[in-house]
Automatic annotation (TrEMBL):
Example of a GO MF term: FAD binding
Keyword Transmembrane: no
The organism's place on the tree of life at top rank: Eukaryota
Name of the protein this chain belongs to: FAD-binding domain-containing protein
InterPro entries in alphabetical order: FAD-bd, FAD/NAD-bd_sf, RIFMO-like
Keywords in alphabetical order: FAD, Flavoprotein, Oxidoreductase
Pfam family, one: FAD_binding_3
Cofactor names: FAD
Domain named FAD-binding: residues: 7-364
Length: 442
């Protein structure tokens, strides 16, 4: 299969952000859109697992929210367990007056991508695989176009190129755009520097109080348990688990084994009392590991989300991980990327229409304003995820006031007191839900 030689909009990357952007453009009347991706098939693993209210709101504008809701599971809150108390961290039901989606939707990324892909196919938008982009260059015949070069030797001329090709974006690198952590202090993330995640089943069912997303907090680490939206493996419920890897341990394997995950569960996971049918001397056991992987938590953001090749050439824009990346705390990554994508579709479609009506007075200011706004929001999300990790990885040590006066209370004890206060305050639970939902960061 060959690529067309010319297109108005070329989206490099057929993940959720690239697909959502194409649907947004199509919704606004743009029909000359081509999506290319380097791999033969879509994502076959399920990293991202949460879709928040603000994201569902924008996906509703392109007709994709309800199919996702139907395929996922609406979770009304997120809880924390520190070994002694179970506390609601975020109460999403408090958002009923702000959104018609007052919950966090748990749904595997594979399902999200599949549903978006079905809508792209139904709209007749071209998706071409596998075509790996290897570079870009100005078009020699028309300065308003960019030539995108492919490993196959083919070339596509596009007036607008959208890099949705991940954190190692070929398009961003070819455009010469920097990509780095916006903060220079290189703060340590301790045991959360390296993390593993897996889709597993337990030998016994959890207490119903722990049936939703639960973050088990311990000194220096976090063990997160999220139920899958439907039952798997017969009567057993499948769960997504996430845990930090101790800094004193060797690097985790690329696909952690059942034994490896079991060791983390024994050290940092939920206690036996969470499994009501177990005997006191029995250890919580994993039953099956369906899929597992490892990753490093790090943050980076592109210096620009919008550029013109050579300063006055074709337009190149960045969304999703090609524009920003950050720790997965709070399930923010794919959500921010999807909101980037839908908003870019609206902004770019408006620019294309304005250009068609006044081709001699083309203004790129609206695209620059879109880029500046999205970058500002991304910086806020990076700050939010880093704050979550700091609280989740508090060390078992004493703290000081202003670095001078010692307080004879450990940081984890202060956190426990904070959780106790949080349990008493529905307002605070609502505020945390508001920040995680993205409704104030659209």
């Amino acid at each position: 299969m060959s690529l067309p030689e010319l297109t108005e909009v070329l989206i490099v990357g057929a993940g959720p952000t690239g697909l959502a952007c194409a649907l947004s453009l199509h919704k606004q009347g743009c029909r000359d859109v081509l999506i290319v991706d380097a791999v033969e098939h879509g994502e076959d693993s399920s990293r991202a697992f949460a879709v928040h209210a603000a994201t569902l709101e924008v996906l509703d504008s392109i007709g994709c929210a309800q199919p996702l809701v139907d395929a996922g599971s609406a979770q009304q809150g997120i809880k924390a367990w520190d070994g002694t108390q179970l506390v609601t961290l975020a109460d999403f039901t408090s958002l009923k007056s702000q959104t018609k989606y007052p919950f966090v939707l748990t749904i595997p990324q594979t399902d999200t991508e599949r549903i978006l892909g079905e809508h792209v196919h139904a709209a007749g938008i071209l998706v071409r695989r596998p075509f790996r982009a290897v570079g870009i260059q100005p078009d020699a015949h028309d300065a308003n176009y960019t030539r995108v070069l492919f490993e196959s030797g083919q070339t596509v001329r596009a007036r607008y190129v959208i890099g949705a090709d991940g954190s190692k974006s070929t398009i961003r690198q070819a455009a010469g755009i920097g990509y780095k952590d916006p903060h220079t202090n290189n703060e340590s993330r301790g045991n959360l520097e390296r993390m593993v995640l897996g889709d597993v089943t337990f030998q016994d069912q959890l207490d119903e109080r722990f049936s939703g997303p639960v973050a088990t907090l311990s000194p220096d680490n976090l063990f997160l348990t999220i139920p899958y939206p439907s039952r798997a493996n017969g009567s057993q419920r499948m769960y997504r688990i996430v845990c930090g890897v101790p800094t004193s341990s060797p690097p985790p394997p690329s696909s952690p084994s059942k034994e490896y995950l079991q060791s983390l569960l024994a050290q940092y996971g939920m206690s036996d009392m969470v499994f009501p049918n177990r005997k006191p001397d029995q250890v919580v056991q994993l039953d099956k590991v369906v899929w597992s992987t490892r990753f490093r938590t790090h943050s980076a953001i592109a210096d620009k989300f919008f550029t013109r090749l050579g300063g006055d050439g074709g337009v190149v824009l960045f969304i999703g991980d090609a524009a920003h990346i950050h720790p997965p705390a709070g399930g923010q990554g794919m959500n921010l990327g999807l909101r980037d994508a839908v908003s870019l579709g609206s902004a770019l479609a408006a620019h294309i229409k304005a250009t068609a009506s006044s081709p001699t007075t083309i203004s790129y200011k609206p695209l620059q304003e879109w880029a500046d706004h999205r970058r500002e929001l991304a910086l806020k999300i990076i700050g939010l995820t880093k704050s979550i990790l700091r609280v989740a990885s508090l060390p078992d040590q004493y703290t000081w006031i202003a670095g001078v006066v010692p307080i004879p209370v450990k940081l984890v004890t202060l956190r426990a007191w904070g959780l106790w206060l949080l349990a008493k305050s529905g307002w605070m639970q609502g505020q945390i839900a508001w920040r995680l939902s993205g409704l104030g960061n659209v």
